[in-house]
Amino acid sequence: MPASLGGVRWWKAIGLAGAAGVVATGLLVVRGERRRRAYTPDQVREQLHVRYAQVVAAEAAETTPAPAVPGPRAWVGRWMARGRRLAERIAKRRGK
Question: Domain boundaries in the chain?
Answer without folding.
Answer: 4-68
